[in-house]
Write the structure tokens for this entry.
Amino acid sequence: MSVNANLGLVFFPAFDWAISPTHPERQERLLYTRDQIVEEGLLDLPQIREYKPKLATIADAERVHIGVPDLSSLLTDAHLVSAGGALAAAEAVMAKQVRRSFALVRPPGHHAMRIVHGTRGFCTINIEAVMVEYLRQTYGIRRIAIVDTDVHHGDGTQDIFYHDPDTLFISFHQDGRTLYPGTGFMDEMGSPNAFVSTVNIPLPPGTGDQGLHYVLDNLILPMVADFEPELIINSAGQDNHYSDPLANMAITAQGYAKLADKLGADIAVLEGGYSIEDALPYVNTGIILAMAGLDYSKVLEPDKGRHVPQQTEQTTAYIKKLVDDWRRIWAVRSEMRRHEIAKTGDMWRRKRSIYYDDSGIREQQQEEVRLCPLCQGYQTVGTQAEGAGFGYKSAYAAVIPRHACPACRRQAQEAVVAARRTGQYQFYFLQDKEKDLLEKV
Amino acid sequence: MLLGIDVGGTFTDAVIVAQGKMLAKTKTVTTHGDLLQGIFCAIDTVMSEAPGTIERVTLSTTVVTNSLVEGTIDPVGLLVIPGPGMNIAPLLPGKAVVLSGYIDHRGRETAKLIKQEIADAYQFFTDRSCFAVSGKFAVRNPAHELAVERESAGMSGVKHVTIASQIAGSLNFLRRTNSAYFNAAVWDKFRQFAAAVEGALVARGVAAPVHILKADGGTMPLAMAKCQPVEAIFTGPAASVLGIMAIGSCKGEAISLDIGGTTTDIALWHNGVPLFAERGAAIGGYPTAVRAFWLRSVGLGGDSWVRRSNDKLLIGPERVGPAMAAGGMEPTVADAMIVAGLADFGTRSLAYQAMKQVALPGRTPEQTAQEVLAGATDIICTAISDMLAAHQAQPVYTVNDMVNTKTFTPAAIIGVGGTAAGLAPLVARRLKIDCLVPDNGAVANALGAAVARATTDITVRVDTEQRLLTVAELSIQEKLSNKSVTMKDVRQLAEKYLADRSDRFGILPDEAETLYEEEFNIVRGFQTTGKIITCRKQVKPGVLTDVR
């Protein structure tokens, strides 16, 4: 079948799945969006073709994640369908059946990190990251840009690609000093070998369409163009909307639709967005029309005009300065990366703690990355997680990256064997991205 | 006695059925200039063969289809209330005047109609007498559509206004609008036709109720058909599918093939009922909300042209004439069937001649006939496997449906139509499943019409947070007396309203079935503040009696 539509739409509202009955991530979340999409007749347009999700496998998820003690005990079928929705969207584009695709699926994924102990920020596995690694494994794609337009910092996606210079991860979000997960500041730029391939743009509360599009036009679009990616992915969260109950931004459905139009992502994947009645039906209609190359100018929230807050002059000035600062950094990014590598030496190390709000866990991580001149460098992670009702779990993992040099491959294997000998952790893993394997050691 | 008439493109068939037996049948040529002439000729023939009291007359008629195809439909004054959203105007079959006003997805008015605009819109279409009005989310609250219709009262020259939400109770503004447009376009033509049929039947002393076959295989009483004639489109294939149902041979999962001269219509069956097209039929390329069986037509039949191009055998989809055995100029699939001993008509030697004409060097006519039949079987099997793949790829919206996907595994092929006896068994053999080619297949359409059950449907939606009950098809919106409504209550309400609607048109509401239901909690903050419950029911399509 070679129907060449403009947009492939994978719609999977998971009408029978919730984190808990009154949790924002519940059955009803995409109900009103379904109503709007079906009522508009969007699925009947020749420019749009609907796809059924696939069922992703645990192996697809383990291409990205290391679950402690294993992934299958931490996720539900809904997560595999949601990730499979992203895979189906990607396949439709790669098979050239459609020009772009949109996985309008739940549950979301962008807060899920490489190591998984439970659910954080409503996410258990990172569906975009699973899709990105699937694209690399199946189609040999290397350079990918991810633009995260959710109001919350995409800390999971950042974590997964923090050492990967082939992935440009750009996240704009409400400033972490005012919102979950409390990260995503400018100085988080990637480990030295991938320095400035992570770009965080923390925006002040109250940022509106004007501010967002200033950032897009003057920063994000030029950065993506400079990076020359083979594919552009949009983590299409919708909670920057002025009516979202969990955040404080002022973006409209038009603002989102224009963003989708200008960004021209090859594949978009839904993330958050919890104004399920007043925003999602209109934001999604706008994004779908824009991605399908159709007229979206008439998409407006019925309550608009009464409730949209105006962006203040102070905010406008703040954003302008933020963009200026970033443009200066971006211009000298190669020098900065060289400097960072030279300054760090052979191994880069960091320690941090990670908070799982849904599962009630606090995790401590110790990471090491070899700054290899020949490849991305092998990585190791030590993790200890604790929580009331959760107990205590610990693990150690070594990661052999794609295109690893022989030395990094050997040293990763040695690292996990050495760690095991100390007996310090409960579980030991070796993730071999080249052989597409996750081994329990 | 049940009288069934099928007005097809070539033949007008009539049958009389009583106590599970076909008492009379006839095939006459369709009189294209004046369809009624052929219809009454057929009626007179069967009635003289089987005299007695007719209890019901059912017509499967192409009046609607023909007037659409021939472009003899009336111009329609189309009034739409789209509110914000997709720009629908360029997608519609005719010029539409866009009115202000908006109803949102919960049925709440978020922008008002402007009275002057409505009057101006009727004025704009001053040369038209048939109108349609369609509003976004009118199935959640019909107030705007009804108000626009009411405004027509004082307008001179307005004969009819189709209210879209009464034609179709499901979400899909685009499809409802198209349905309403075509309904208004054929409304007057159908009314004239219905009056002529009623008059002529009375003149013959037939006092039985007249029903019209719908595309979904049910019938509707003439009174209802006069309101929603668009439902009478595409009834030919529906009748044939019903004929298969009446002959009663589709148990479990099965595939039916209606193999005619130039096309094969394929339908999938589950437990004796054909699968429906997911959202509705398309009319002239415009998607509508008209419920119809899911059929795939492939350009292959007995008259399909067989030729060779660069050693490659080509079959159909064109027809250049009848089989060479029957005096045609070019080889056909039927010629191959004759040579293979699967058909017996015309001049046998000419069929051999036809096969020689397309034979590869050194191959006999018999071998060539087998090659042609294998090619024809390929074409049908490819269409079947596409259809099965499409069925498998139909989106699902719950984790349960995703994880417990059932594959469609047909156990039998049922073949009807002129060429079925020859080709259907070959398809069945290829798929390694059973094959049935019932008798009476040739008048299956008229038979289907005769015994089809009258059906109708209803959509009840309850929003307990707003304390609202909505029944789209009946334009009902009322306050709920009780906030603690459950799914069970809504099912009962749906049955009651289905009975009401059936009763209004004299339909027996036996065997109601649920088409669709869903139930969602409405949560505000972290409190459950109400429920939205939807239940859609119909009188189950089926046959009044099996025919043996």
